[in-house]
Amino acid sequence: MRSGELLSSAIRYATVMCVPSVFLAVVGLSACKTTPPAADRQGQLIAKGRDLFFNETFAGNGRTCGTCHPAENNFTIDPAFIATLPKDNPLFVAEFNPDLKENFENPALMREFGLILENLDGFDDLKNQFVMRGVPHTLGLRTSVNSPGGPRTGWSGDGAPGDGSLRSFAVGAVIQHFTKTLNRVPDVDFRLPTGEELDALEAIQLSLGRQQDLALPLRLRGTVPKRGQEIFLDNTLGKCNRCHVNAGATANFGGGSLGNANFNTGVEDLPDQPARLTGKVVPRDDGFRTPGDGTFNVPPLVEAADTGPFFHNNAIETIEGAVAFYDGEAFNKSPAGRALAAADPRGVGIELDGTQIVAVAAFLRVINVLENIRQSIMLLEASLAASSSEEKRRLLQAARRETEDSTRVLEGGGLHPDAVAHLQEARRLAEKAVRRVFFSRKHTEEAIREQKKARALLVE
Q1: CATH 1.20.120.660 domain residues, the chain
Q2: CB-CB neighbours of 148 under 10 Å
Q3: pTM of this prediction?
Q4: Rounded CA gap, 408 and 430, in Å?
Q5: Which of 143, 135, 300 lies closest to 207, judged by CA?
Q6: What CA–CA distances, in Å, run from 25 to 32, 51, 328?
Q7: Per residue in 1-33, pLDDT tens?
Q8: How far apart are CA 272 and CA 62, in angstroms?
Q9: CATH number given to 365-458
Protein backbone atom coordinates (compact mmCIF):
# COMPACT_ATOMS: atom_id res chain seq x y z
CA MET A 1 0.00 0.00 0.00
CA ARG A 2 1.12 3.58 -0.56
CA SER A 3 0.98 5.99 2.36
CA GLY A 4 3.69 8.63 2.13
CA GLU A 5 5.91 9.50 5.05
CA LEU A 6 4.32 7.11 7.54
CA LEU A 7 5.00 4.11 5.37
CA SER A 8 8.46 5.34 4.38
CA SER A 9 9.44 5.66 8.03
CA ALA A 10 7.97 2.23 8.67
CA ILE A 11 10.14 0.70 5.97
CA ARG A 12 13.23 2.43 7.35
CA TYR A 13 12.35 1.13 10.80
CA ALA A 14 11.89 -2.41 9.54
CA THR A 15 15.15 -2.25 7.59
CA VAL A 16 17.09 -1.02 10.60
CA MET A 17 15.54 -3.73 12.72
CA CYS A 18 17.10 -6.32 10.42
CA VAL A 19 20.64 -5.33 11.43
CA PRO A 20 20.61 -6.38 15.07
CA SER A 21 18.61 -9.48 14.17
CA VAL A 22 21.25 -10.58 11.68
CA PHE A 23 24.09 -9.64 14.07
CA LEU A 24 22.61 -11.65 16.91
CA ALA A 25 22.00 -14.58 14.61
CA VAL A 26 25.65 -14.57 13.51
CA VAL A 27 26.90 -14.32 17.10
CA GLY A 28 24.60 -17.13 18.15
CA LEU A 29 25.73 -19.38 15.33
CA SER A 30 29.41 -18.71 15.96
CA ALA A 31 28.99 -20.01 19.49
CA CYS A 32 27.44 -23.30 18.36
CA LYS A 33 29.50 -26.41 17.81
CA THR A 34 27.25 -27.58 14.98
CA THR A 35 25.13 -25.66 12.52
CA PRO A 36 21.64 -27.01 11.71
CA PRO A 37 21.22 -28.02 8.05
CA ALA A 38 19.89 -25.25 5.81
CA ALA A 39 16.69 -27.21 5.20
CA ASP A 40 16.08 -27.44 8.96
CA ARG A 41 16.70 -23.72 9.44
CA GLN A 42 14.28 -22.92 6.61
CA GLY A 43 11.70 -25.26 8.13
CA GLN A 44 12.06 -23.52 11.47
CA LEU A 45 11.68 -20.13 9.79
CA ILE A 46 8.51 -21.29 8.00
CA ALA A 47 7.11 -22.70 11.25
CA LYS A 48 7.77 -19.39 12.99
CA GLY A 49 6.16 -17.57 10.07
CA ARG A 50 3.08 -19.78 10.32
CA ASP A 51 2.70 -18.91 13.99
CA LEU A 52 3.09 -15.20 13.26
CA PHE A 53 0.74 -15.31 10.26
CA PHE A 54 -2.13 -16.89 12.17
CA ASN A 55 -1.59 -15.75 15.76
CA GLU A 56 0.34 -12.47 15.96
CA THR A 57 -1.77 -9.30 16.32
CA PHE A 58 1.22 -6.92 16.48
CA ALA A 59 -0.39 -5.21 19.50
CA GLY A 60 -3.19 -3.98 17.28
CA ASN A 61 -6.95 -4.38 17.01
CA GLY A 62 -6.98 -8.17 17.20
CA ARG A 63 -6.52 -8.97 13.53
CA THR A 64 -3.81 -11.28 12.26
CA CYS A 65 -2.65 -11.96 8.72
CA GLY A 66 -4.86 -15.04 8.82
CA THR A 67 -7.93 -12.91 9.53
CA CYS A 68 -8.15 -11.98 5.84
CA HIS A 69 -6.06 -14.91 4.56
CA PRO A 70 -7.48 -17.93 6.44
CA ALA A 71 -5.96 -21.30 5.56
CA GLU A 72 -9.37 -22.94 5.73
CA ASN A 73 -10.60 -20.80 2.83
CA ASN A 74 -7.63 -20.94 0.44
CA PHE A 75 -6.00 -17.94 2.10
CA THR A 76 -8.70 -15.53 0.98
CA ILE A 77 -12.21 -14.53 2.07
CA ASP A 78 -15.51 -14.40 0.24
CA PRO A 79 -19.09 -13.63 1.35
CA ALA A 80 -19.95 -17.30 1.95
CA PHE A 81 -16.99 -17.75 4.28
CA ILE A 82 -17.56 -14.40 5.99
CA ALA A 83 -21.14 -15.46 6.77
CA THR A 84 -19.81 -18.38 8.87
CA LEU A 85 -17.74 -16.17 11.21
CA PRO A 86 -18.90 -15.18 14.72
CA LYS A 87 -19.88 -11.55 15.19
CA ASP A 88 -16.85 -10.88 17.42
CA ASN A 89 -14.36 -12.04 14.78
CA PRO A 90 -11.61 -9.40 14.35
CA LEU A 91 -12.58 -9.08 10.68
CA PHE A 92 -15.61 -7.14 11.93
CA VAL A 93 -13.65 -4.84 14.24
CA ALA A 94 -15.21 -1.75 12.64
CA GLU A 95 -18.59 -2.96 13.92
CA PHE A 96 -17.59 -3.10 17.60
CA ASN A 97 -14.63 -0.73 18.01
CA PRO A 98 -15.95 2.86 18.19
CA ASP A 99 -12.54 4.25 17.16
CA LEU A 100 -12.78 2.39 13.85
CA LYS A 101 -16.47 2.90 13.13
CA GLU A 102 -15.93 5.43 10.34
CA ASN A 103 -13.53 5.30 7.38
CA PHE A 104 -11.80 2.06 8.39
CA GLU A 105 -14.03 -0.50 6.64
CA ASN A 106 -17.42 -0.63 4.96
CA PRO A 107 -19.04 -3.53 6.85
CA ALA A 108 -22.00 -3.81 4.47
CA LEU A 109 -19.79 -4.16 1.39
CA MET A 110 -17.50 -6.53 3.24
CA ARG A 111 -20.30 -8.87 4.22
CA GLU A 112 -22.15 -8.79 0.90
CA PHE A 113 -19.23 -8.73 -1.54
CA GLY A 114 -16.09 -9.58 0.44
CA LEU A 115 -14.55 -6.14 -0.14
CA ILE A 116 -11.89 -4.56 2.07
CA LEU A 117 -11.19 -0.83 2.30
CA GLU A 118 -7.68 0.20 1.20
CA ASN A 119 -6.11 3.68 1.45
CA LEU A 120 -3.75 3.25 -1.48
CA ASP A 121 -3.12 6.98 -1.85
CA GLY A 122 -2.31 7.57 1.81
CA PHE A 123 -4.25 8.53 4.92
CA ASP A 124 -4.62 12.28 4.41
CA ASP A 125 -8.28 12.13 3.32
CA LEU A 126 -9.82 8.97 4.72
CA LYS A 127 -13.34 9.92 3.74
CA ASN A 128 -12.62 10.28 0.03
CA GLN A 129 -9.30 8.63 -0.79
CA PHE A 130 -9.90 4.90 -0.68
CA VAL A 131 -10.77 1.92 -2.85
CA MET A 132 -12.69 -1.28 -2.17
CA ARG A 133 -10.85 -4.45 -3.08
CA GLY A 134 -11.21 -8.19 -2.71
CA VAL A 135 -8.60 -10.19 -0.83
CA PRO A 136 -6.05 -11.90 -3.12
CA HIS A 137 -5.06 -15.42 -2.08
CA THR A 138 -1.44 -16.03 -1.13
CA LEU A 139 -0.95 -19.31 -3.00
CA GLY A 140 1.85 -19.78 -5.51
CA LEU A 141 3.49 -16.47 -4.64
CA ARG A 142 6.93 -17.86 -5.42
CA THR A 143 5.92 -18.05 -9.08
CA SER A 144 3.82 -14.91 -9.33
CA VAL A 145 5.39 -11.79 -7.82
CA ASN A 146 8.59 -11.31 -9.79
CA SER A 147 9.03 -8.88 -12.65
CA PRO A 148 11.96 -7.01 -14.23
CA GLY A 149 10.70 -3.85 -12.55
CA GLY A 150 10.62 -5.40 -9.09
CA PRO A 151 8.13 -7.43 -7.04
CA ARG A 152 4.42 -7.11 -7.82
CA THR A 153 2.20 -7.56 -4.76
CA GLY A 154 -1.47 -6.88 -4.21
CA TRP A 155 -4.00 -6.40 -7.00
CA SER A 156 -2.29 -3.42 -8.58
CA GLY A 157 1.29 -4.62 -8.31
CA ASP A 158 2.19 -1.95 -5.76
CA GLY A 159 0.40 -3.29 -2.74
CA ALA A 160 3.52 -2.87 -0.62
CA PRO A 161 5.31 0.32 0.42
CA GLY A 162 8.98 0.92 -0.25
CA ASP A 163 10.52 -1.76 -2.45
CA GLY A 164 7.23 -3.58 -3.07
CA SER A 165 8.49 -6.84 -1.58
CA LEU A 166 6.54 -9.34 0.50
CA ARG A 167 8.45 -8.16 3.55
CA SER A 168 7.29 -4.61 2.92
CA PHE A 169 3.79 -5.88 2.21
CA ALA A 170 3.57 -7.13 5.81
CA VAL A 171 4.56 -3.68 7.14
CA GLY A 172 1.90 -2.00 5.02
CA ALA A 173 -0.73 -4.54 6.09
CA VAL A 174 -0.11 -3.89 9.78
CA ILE A 175 -0.42 -0.13 9.33
CA GLN A 176 -3.54 -0.36 7.15
CA HIS A 177 -5.48 -3.19 8.78
CA PHE A 178 -4.19 -3.83 12.32
CA THR A 179 -4.45 -0.33 13.82
CA LYS A 180 -6.45 0.38 16.98
CA THR A 181 -7.39 3.90 15.86
CA LEU A 182 -7.27 5.92 12.67
CA ASN A 183 -4.26 7.84 14.03
CA ARG A 184 -2.08 4.88 13.06
CA VAL A 185 0.76 5.74 15.44
CA PRO A 186 3.46 3.03 15.73
CA ASP A 187 3.91 1.63 19.26
CA VAL A 188 0.53 3.13 20.20
CA ASP A 189 -1.97 1.72 17.70
CA PHE A 190 0.20 -1.26 16.70
CA ARG A 191 3.81 -2.35 16.72
CA LEU A 192 5.75 -2.81 13.50
CA PRO A 193 7.18 -6.26 12.69
CA THR A 194 10.87 -6.78 13.44
CA GLY A 195 13.28 -7.75 10.69
CA GLU A 196 13.32 -11.34 11.95
CA GLU A 197 9.52 -11.46 11.90
CA LEU A 198 9.44 -10.10 8.36
CA ASP A 199 11.84 -12.83 7.26
CA ALA A 200 9.58 -15.46 8.78
CA LEU A 201 6.41 -13.99 7.28
CA GLU A 202 8.05 -13.92 3.86
CA ALA A 203 9.16 -17.54 4.28
CA ILE A 204 5.68 -18.84 5.13
CA GLN A 205 4.06 -16.96 2.26
CA LEU A 206 6.59 -18.19 -0.28
CA SER A 207 6.07 -21.76 0.95
CA LEU A 208 2.33 -21.78 0.22
CA GLY A 209 1.00 -23.62 -2.82
CA ARG A 210 2.91 -24.30 -6.03
CA GLN A 211 6.66 -23.78 -6.11
CA GLN A 212 6.84 -23.89 -9.91
CA ASP A 213 4.60 -23.27 -12.90
CA LEU A 214 2.89 -25.91 -15.00
CA ALA A 215 4.31 -27.02 -18.33
CA LEU A 216 1.40 -26.85 -20.77
CA PRO A 217 -0.07 -28.59 -22.63
CA LEU A 218 -1.07 -31.34 -20.23
CA ARG A 219 -2.35 -34.67 -21.54
CA LEU A 220 -5.84 -34.07 -20.23
CA ARG A 221 -8.73 -36.48 -20.29
CA GLY A 222 -12.24 -35.18 -20.85
CA THR A 223 -13.45 -33.74 -24.12
CA VAL A 224 -14.43 -30.26 -22.95
CA PRO A 225 -11.41 -29.48 -20.70
CA LYS A 226 -9.10 -30.75 -23.45
CA ARG A 227 -10.70 -28.38 -25.95
CA GLY A 228 -10.51 -25.59 -23.38
CA GLN A 229 -6.75 -26.07 -23.11
CA GLU A 230 -6.43 -25.82 -26.90
CA ILE A 231 -8.35 -22.54 -26.94
CA PHE A 232 -6.33 -21.22 -23.99
CA LEU A 233 -3.04 -21.89 -25.78
CA ASP A 234 -4.19 -20.70 -29.22
CA ASN A 235 -2.74 -17.21 -29.71
CA THR A 236 -5.19 -16.55 -32.53
CA LEU A 237 -8.33 -17.60 -30.62
CA GLY A 238 -8.31 -17.56 -26.81
CA LYS A 239 -4.99 -15.71 -26.56
CA CYS A 240 -5.01 -16.45 -22.83
CA ASN A 241 -1.45 -17.77 -22.81
CA ARG A 242 -0.05 -14.42 -23.90
CA CYS A 243 -0.66 -12.90 -20.48
CA HIS A 244 -0.93 -16.10 -18.41
CA VAL A 245 1.94 -18.26 -19.66
CA ASN A 246 1.33 -21.85 -18.53
CA ALA A 247 -1.75 -20.54 -16.68
CA GLY A 248 0.54 -18.65 -14.30
CA ALA A 249 1.17 -14.96 -13.65
CA THR A 250 3.91 -14.40 -16.22
CA ALA A 251 3.12 -12.46 -19.39
CA ASN A 252 4.78 -13.07 -22.75
CA PHE A 253 3.39 -10.37 -24.94
CA GLY A 254 5.00 -8.01 -27.40
CA GLY A 255 8.06 -10.07 -28.18
CA GLY A 256 9.35 -11.35 -24.84
CA SER A 257 8.72 -12.31 -21.24
CA LEU A 258 7.45 -9.45 -19.07
CA GLY A 259 7.42 -11.38 -15.82
CA ASN A 260 4.47 -10.43 -13.66
CA ALA A 261 3.17 -7.46 -15.66
CA ASN A 262 0.48 -4.81 -15.32
CA PHE A 263 -2.32 -4.23 -17.84
CA ASN A 264 -5.40 -2.04 -18.09
CA THR A 265 -8.06 -4.61 -18.94
CA GLY A 266 -11.08 -2.37 -18.47
CA VAL A 267 -12.43 -4.11 -15.39
CA GLU A 268 -13.23 -0.73 -13.84
CA ASP A 269 -15.39 0.04 -16.89
CA LEU A 270 -17.71 -2.91 -16.35
CA PRO A 271 -21.33 -1.76 -16.05
CA ASP A 272 -23.46 -2.82 -13.09
CA GLN A 273 -20.57 -3.59 -10.78
CA PRO A 274 -22.23 -5.26 -7.77
CA ALA A 275 -20.82 -2.96 -5.07
CA ARG A 276 -21.87 0.18 -6.94
CA LEU A 277 -25.41 -1.14 -7.43
CA THR A 278 -25.91 -0.68 -3.67
CA GLY A 279 -25.66 3.10 -4.05
CA LYS A 280 -22.78 3.27 -1.58
CA VAL A 281 -19.74 5.37 -2.44
CA VAL A 282 -17.20 3.20 -4.23
CA PRO A 283 -14.51 5.44 -5.78
CA ARG A 284 -12.95 4.42 -9.06
CA ASP A 285 -9.87 2.28 -8.49
CA ASP A 286 -7.01 3.76 -10.50
CA GLY A 287 -4.67 0.82 -9.99
CA PHE A 288 -0.89 1.05 -10.16
CA ARG A 289 1.05 4.01 -8.69
CA THR A 290 -0.16 7.34 -7.25
CA PRO A 291 -1.95 8.74 -9.12
CA GLY A 292 -2.74 5.43 -10.73
CA ASP A 293 -2.35 4.47 -14.35
CA GLY A 294 -5.40 2.19 -14.39
CA THR A 295 -3.40 -1.03 -14.58
CA PHE A 296 -3.53 -4.18 -12.49
CA ASN A 297 -1.06 -7.04 -12.34
CA VAL A 298 -1.56 -10.51 -13.78
CA PRO A 299 -2.86 -13.06 -11.24
CA PRO A 300 -2.08 -16.79 -11.51
CA LEU A 301 -4.90 -18.90 -12.95
CA VAL A 302 -4.09 -22.37 -11.62
CA GLU A 303 -5.70 -21.48 -8.28
CA ALA A 304 -8.49 -19.36 -9.76
CA ALA A 305 -11.51 -21.66 -9.84
CA ASP A 306 -11.73 -22.13 -6.06
CA THR A 307 -10.69 -18.61 -5.00
CA GLY A 308 -13.42 -16.41 -6.48
CA PRO A 309 -15.00 -13.87 -6.70
CA PHE A 310 -12.81 -12.55 -9.46
CA PHE A 311 -10.81 -9.41 -10.31
CA HIS A 312 -9.64 -6.73 -7.90
CA ASN A 313 -13.18 -5.55 -7.22
CA ASN A 314 -14.87 -8.98 -6.89
CA ALA A 315 -17.05 -7.95 -9.84
CA ILE A 316 -17.56 -11.48 -11.23
CA GLU A 317 -18.72 -14.46 -9.20
CA THR A 318 -17.96 -17.53 -11.35
CA ILE A 319 -14.97 -18.74 -13.33
CA GLU A 320 -17.19 -18.94 -16.41
CA GLY A 321 -18.13 -15.28 -15.93
CA ALA A 322 -14.46 -14.35 -15.52
CA VAL A 323 -13.58 -16.00 -18.84
CA ALA A 324 -16.58 -14.37 -20.52
CA PHE A 325 -15.34 -10.93 -19.42
CA TYR A 326 -12.57 -11.14 -22.02
CA ASP A 327 -15.13 -11.59 -24.79
CA GLY A 328 -16.97 -8.46 -23.70
CA GLU A 329 -16.92 -4.81 -24.69
CA ALA A 330 -15.19 -3.56 -21.52
CA PHE A 331 -12.11 -5.67 -22.23
CA ASN A 332 -11.96 -5.38 -25.99
CA LYS A 333 -12.18 -1.58 -25.80
CA SER A 334 -9.53 -1.39 -23.08
CA PRO A 335 -5.83 -0.66 -23.74
CA ALA A 336 -5.01 -4.35 -23.21
CA GLY A 337 -7.80 -5.47 -25.51
CA ARG A 338 -6.76 -3.05 -28.22
CA ALA A 339 -3.14 -4.18 -27.92
CA LEU A 340 -4.20 -7.80 -28.43
CA ALA A 341 -6.20 -6.81 -31.50
CA ALA A 342 -3.27 -4.83 -32.90
CA ALA A 343 -1.04 -7.90 -32.56
CA ASP A 344 -3.54 -10.07 -34.47
CA PRO A 345 -3.09 -10.20 -38.26
CA ARG A 346 -6.88 -9.93 -38.60
CA GLY A 347 -7.10 -7.04 -36.14
CA VAL A 348 -9.33 -9.13 -33.85
CA GLY A 349 -9.25 -9.12 -30.08
CA ILE A 350 -10.85 -12.01 -28.19
CA GLU A 351 -14.05 -13.41 -29.68
CA LEU A 352 -15.35 -16.58 -28.04
CA ASP A 353 -18.76 -18.17 -28.25
CA GLY A 354 -20.59 -19.57 -25.24
CA THR A 355 -19.37 -23.14 -25.65
CA GLN A 356 -15.78 -21.94 -25.99
CA ILE A 357 -16.08 -19.86 -22.83
CA VAL A 358 -17.34 -22.92 -20.97
CA ALA A 359 -14.50 -25.03 -22.40
CA VAL A 360 -11.80 -22.62 -21.20
CA ALA A 361 -13.46 -22.47 -17.78
CA ALA A 362 -13.57 -26.28 -17.70
CA PHE A 363 -9.84 -26.37 -18.39
CA LEU A 364 -9.23 -23.92 -15.54
CA ARG A 365 -11.40 -25.99 -13.24
CA VAL A 366 -9.45 -29.15 -14.03
CA ILE A 367 -5.98 -27.65 -13.53
CA ASN A 368 -7.20 -26.19 -10.24
CA VAL A 369 -8.31 -29.62 -9.12
CA LEU A 370 -5.03 -31.19 -10.23
CA GLU A 371 -3.24 -28.71 -7.99
CA ASN A 372 -5.64 -29.48 -5.14
CA ILE A 373 -4.97 -33.19 -5.57
CA ARG A 374 -1.21 -32.58 -5.59
CA GLN A 375 -1.49 -30.66 -2.34
CA SER A 376 -3.86 -33.23 -0.82
CA ILE A 377 -1.43 -36.08 -1.50
CA MET A 378 1.49 -34.02 -0.16
CA LEU A 379 -0.44 -33.23 3.03
CA LEU A 380 -1.57 -36.81 3.51
CA GLU A 381 1.96 -38.11 3.05
CA ALA A 382 3.32 -35.49 5.45
CA SER A 383 0.76 -36.55 8.06
CA LEU A 384 2.22 -40.06 8.03
CA ALA A 385 5.55 -38.62 9.16
CA ALA A 386 4.16 -36.03 11.58
CA SER A 387 5.98 -35.87 14.90
CA SER A 388 2.92 -34.96 16.98
CA SER A 389 -0.77 -35.82 16.99
CA GLU A 390 -1.60 -32.13 16.77
CA GLU A 391 0.49 -31.66 13.61
CA LYS A 392 -0.91 -34.84 12.11
CA ARG A 393 -4.44 -33.63 12.71
CA ARG A 394 -3.67 -30.23 11.16
CA LEU A 395 -2.28 -31.85 8.02
CA LEU A 396 -5.17 -34.28 7.66
CA GLN A 397 -7.73 -31.52 8.07
CA ALA A 398 -5.92 -29.40 5.46
CA ALA A 399 -5.96 -32.38 3.07
CA ARG A 400 -9.68 -32.80 3.67
CA ARG A 401 -10.32 -29.14 2.83
CA GLU A 402 -8.33 -29.43 -0.40
CA THR A 403 -10.42 -32.47 -1.32
CA GLU A 404 -13.65 -30.64 -0.59
CA ASP A 405 -12.47 -27.89 -2.93
CA SER A 406 -11.69 -30.45 -5.63
CA THR A 407 -15.18 -31.89 -5.42
CA ARG A 408 -16.86 -28.49 -5.41
CA VAL A 409 -14.88 -27.22 -8.41
CA LEU A 410 -15.57 -30.27 -10.56
CA GLU A 411 -19.25 -30.45 -9.63
CA GLY A 412 -19.62 -26.73 -10.31
CA GLY A 413 -18.70 -27.35 -13.95
CA GLY A 414 -20.47 -30.69 -14.32
CA LEU A 415 -17.07 -32.33 -14.90
CA HIS A 416 -15.66 -35.82 -14.28
CA PRO A 417 -18.29 -37.36 -11.99
CA ASP A 418 -16.16 -40.52 -11.89
CA ALA A 419 -13.28 -38.57 -10.38
CA VAL A 420 -15.66 -36.85 -7.96
CA ALA A 421 -16.64 -40.26 -6.55
CA HIS A 422 -13.01 -41.07 -5.75
CA LEU A 423 -12.47 -37.64 -4.20
CA GLN A 424 -15.51 -38.05 -1.98
CA GLU A 425 -14.13 -41.38 -0.80
CA ALA A 426 -10.73 -39.80 -0.17
CA ARG A 427 -12.40 -37.13 1.94
CA ARG A 428 -14.28 -39.76 3.96
CA LEU A 429 -11.06 -41.69 4.59
CA ALA A 430 -9.20 -38.55 5.66
CA GLU A 431 -11.95 -37.83 8.20
CA LYS A 432 -11.67 -41.39 9.52
CA ALA A 433 -7.91 -40.99 9.81
CA VAL A 434 -8.45 -37.93 12.01
CA ARG A 435 -10.84 -39.79 14.31
CA ARG A 436 -9.21 -43.23 14.49
CA VAL A 437 -6.01 -43.74 16.45
CA PHE A 438 -5.14 -47.32 15.58
CA PHE A 439 -6.15 -47.38 11.90
CA SER A 440 -5.19 -43.82 11.02
CA ARG A 441 -2.22 -44.85 8.84
CA LYS A 442 -4.31 -47.38 6.95
CA HIS A 443 -7.05 -44.83 6.22
CA THR A 444 -4.50 -42.21 5.19
CA GLU A 445 -2.80 -44.56 2.76
CA GLU A 446 -6.17 -45.52 1.29
CA ALA A 447 -7.06 -41.82 0.93
CA ILE A 448 -3.82 -41.28 -1.03
CA ARG A 449 -4.75 -44.11 -3.38
CA GLU A 450 -8.20 -42.60 -3.97
CA GLN A 451 -6.61 -39.22 -4.77
CA LYS A 452 -4.35 -40.87 -7.32
CA LYS A 453 -7.30 -42.66 -8.90
CA ALA A 454 -9.12 -39.35 -9.27
CA ARG A 455 -6.03 -37.76 -10.81
CA ALA A 456 -5.71 -40.57 -13.33
CA LEU A 457 -9.21 -39.77 -14.58
CA LEU A 458 -8.27 -36.11 -15.17
CA VAL A 459 -4.87 -36.43 -16.82
CA GLU A 460 -2.85 -39.18 -18.47
Answers
A1: 365-458
A2: 10
A3: 0.91
A4: 17
A5: 143
A6: 11, 20, 55
A7: 444 445 444 444 443 333 333 222 323 333 344
A8: 35
A9: 1.20.120.660
